[in-house]
Every structure is written in structure tokens, then in C-alpha cells.
Specification:
Elements: E1 8-12, E2 15-20, E3 23-29, E4 35-40, H1 45-48, H2 57-80, H3 90-115, H4 126-148, H5 152-172, H6 179-182, H7 193-208, H8 216-243, H9 247-263, H10 269-280
Antiparallel strand pairs: 1-2, 2-3, 3-4
Length: 297
């Protein structure tokens, strides 16, 4: 039986980035309808420090690398798709990432933990304060996803997100990577980053519920410090969900699959072609699916 390599991906502006064991490939549909591909090698810190490949630690590394490579792919796709503006330098990308992380901390940590005190008249139990904070965090996250999913430009990105999932499903099923074969698959995938983020929030509710209710600054600091560890645990759950299609592990990611109905859209054939091209570029040379024909027009 042919062994399938582990493939991950990300939707970008008018395209898809795929990551395989041999590197990264970002395929983008240009304004003239041609597909341009940028390939990059992967330089993971885990190769230099093997202990970072241990469970949980590997999830933290994967998250950091996903942020870095994802930002680079978005930068390339914006230029290739004809977006105005010059390409960002490494310093500008670092500043953009820092700003995005800062906004995430403000929106998903500071706001919920501050607003949780609104239930102070109902209870004085720290456990319920923490539970309220976790529920508020999930509500803010879902409302945020719902709001941005209404934007036309984001909806196109979500179509490419759906194309990415369909192509990976087809590859994992052993299908030839042709548009007709890919089209029938679901836009939902258990290893999606949307499911990962939802699992992070669920686990954070469980962990933070037993940490008491210290001052606001200590609460914010504890959430930031523990978040990498929680992300590492969530990564292991996502990995297991990708391997085992049933049972308790799969049940844990079902809410994430539901949420993907907001973050994915049904792609058209042209978008599927872009996702196929990106995946083909990261498959091993001897993979029979790499040789499937794709109509690029």
C-alpha cells in the first residue's frame, strides 16, 4: 500500500500554500489567469534541536513556523495577485506579525478576562469566573469569524481554503489529482487550523478554570505564558484526529468541523486547479498522484 506523506496547507490571496516534507509551494492565480508558483525549502529548528520533535514541544514549533511561513506566503500572494504596494521586508513582516499577535492578545485574552467580572454579582467562585471568561473568549472568536466571513475578499480566500481541503482529501484517498476527482470531496478537514484554534480555546477553559482568580495583570500574564503549552496539547489532539476517524478523539474536533462551515466556501474549478498545482509541487518525485494532468488556463 502506498504511504501518503503528511500535507498541510493554507489559503492565501488568490491561491493556496501547501507544505510537505520537501518544502513549501505557494500557487497563485495571476490577473492574466496564469498560475505562478513559488517554492521554498523548509528550515525547521527541530532539525538542529531534535528534542523539539517531542510531543507537545513539536506543536509549539509547528505553530511558530506556521505563522512565519504563512506570513511569507501571504506576502508573495499579494504581489502575485496584483495587489498594490511593495513587497514587505523581513522587518516589516515581523512588525506586522507582532501587531497581529498584539491584537489577538487584546481581543481574545484581555477583553474576555476583563469582561468576566460582569458576573461578579452572581457568584464569587473563581471557578465560575474562569468558566465565564472561557465562554466569552469562544463567543468573541466565533463572532469575529462570522464578521470577517461576510467580507467579499475574505469569502474568496475561504473558497481557496475549501479548495485546499478538497485537494488534501483527494490525495489522502489515493485519487488522481484531477479537478473532476477533487470536486466531490468535502471542504471540511479534521486537521484544519480553525479546528485547532477551537480546541485551544476549549482546553484553555479547562486549564484556566483551576488557576484561581488573581489580579487582572496576573490573569493576562498567566494566559499568555500558558498558551504555548495549551497549543502544544491541542496540536497532538489534531494529529490524532487526522489518524483516527472515529471515537473520542474525533468527537473532540466535531465542533471545529462545524465552525469550518464559516471559514470555508465551495470553490470553483479554477480555484481547485490552483490548489492541485500547489500540492503537486510538494509531493515526492515518485508519488503517482504528482503526474496527474491539470488544466492551467
Amino acid at each position: 500500500m502506498e504511504t501518503k506523506v503528511n500535507i498541510g496547507g493554507q489559503a492565501v490571496i488568490e491561491g493556496v500554500m501547501m507544505r510537505g516534507p520537501g518544502g513549501l509551494a505557494t500557487a497563485v492565480r495571476q490577473p492574466d489567469q496564469q498560475i505562478i508558483v513559488k517554492k521554498d525549502s523548509i528550515r525547521t529548528i527541530s532539525d538542529r534541536w531534535p528534542f523539539l520533535k517531542l510531543p507537545i514541544l513539536r506543536g509549539i514549533v509547528a505553530l511558530v513556523e506556521a505563522l512565519v511561513y504563512g506570513m511569507q506566503a501571504l506576502n508573495f500572494s499579494a504581489q502575485a495577485a496584483g495587489e498594490e504596494g511593495e513587497q514587505l521586508s523581513n522587518r516589516e513582516m515581523a512588525m506586522t506579525m507582532a501587531f497581529a499577535i498584539g491584537m489577538g492578545i487584546l481581543l481574545f485574552i484581555v477583553l474576555p478576562t476583563t469582561a468576566a467580572k460582569l458576573i461578579q454579582g452572581m457568584t464569587t467562585d473563581p471557578f465560575w469566573f474562569n468558566m465565564a471568561e472561557g465562554i466569552l473568549r469562544k463567543v468573541v472568536f466565533i463572532l469575529y469569524i462570522f464578521a470577517i466571513s461576510r467580507l467579499p475578499d475574505i469569502q474568496r480566500v475561504f473558497q481557496y481554503h475549501g479548495a485546499e481541503h478538497k485537494v488534501i482529501h483527494a490525495y489522502e484517498a489515493g485519487e488522481q489529482l484531477e479537478t473532476e476527482n477533487v470536486r466531490k470531496y468535502s471542504t471540511l478537514h479534521p486537521r484544519c487550523g480553525t479546528s485547532f484554534l477551537l480546541i485551544v480555546m476549549v482546553i484553555s477553559i479547562i486549564v484556566f478554570a483551576f488557576l484561581g482568580w488573581p489580579s487582572l495583570m496576573w490573569r493576562i500574564a498567566s494566559r499568555i505564558v500558558l498558551m504555548p503549552l495549551i497549543a502544544g496539547v491541542s496540536y497532538e489532539i489534531i494529529r490524532m484526529a487526522g489518524k483516527y476517524k472515529g471515537g473520542l478523539v474525533h468527537a473532540c474536533i466535531v465542533p471545529g468541523l462545524w465552525l469550518q462551515r464559516l471559514t470555508t466556501r465551495e470553490p470553483n474549478d479554477a480555484q481547485i486547479e490552483v490548489a492541485i498545482r500547489a500540492l503537486q509541487e510538494v509531493l515526492p518525485e515518485n508519488d503517482s498522484q504528482k503526474c496527474a494532468n491539470v488544466n492551467i488556463s
